[in-house]
TrEMBL record:
Protein name per its UniProtKB record: Uncharacterized protein
Family label: Belongs to the DEFL family.
Xref: PANTHER family: DEFENSIN-LIKE PROTEIN 184-RELATED
Top-rank taxon, per record: Eukaryota
Coiled coil stretches, renumbered: none
Amino acid sequence: MAKSSVLCFLFFLLVISSSGGARIVAEAKDCGATWDCTTEERCWDDCRSRYDGKGHCDYRTHPFAPRQCNCSYKC
């Protein structure tokens, strides 16, 4: 009886592991970089050429602080 229950358990594990079909897929994380922004077009071009990402300048800045180019990209 104990031998048959062990065999049934192993068969059950085999069926579950073979029918799962789950694949591990690595996903890229979102990263970001910032630097001083001169113009919106320059920010967009620099971000695209450096990181193949999307960049935009901050419109809300602190007083006496330069605008920042925010670049988001997959790393």
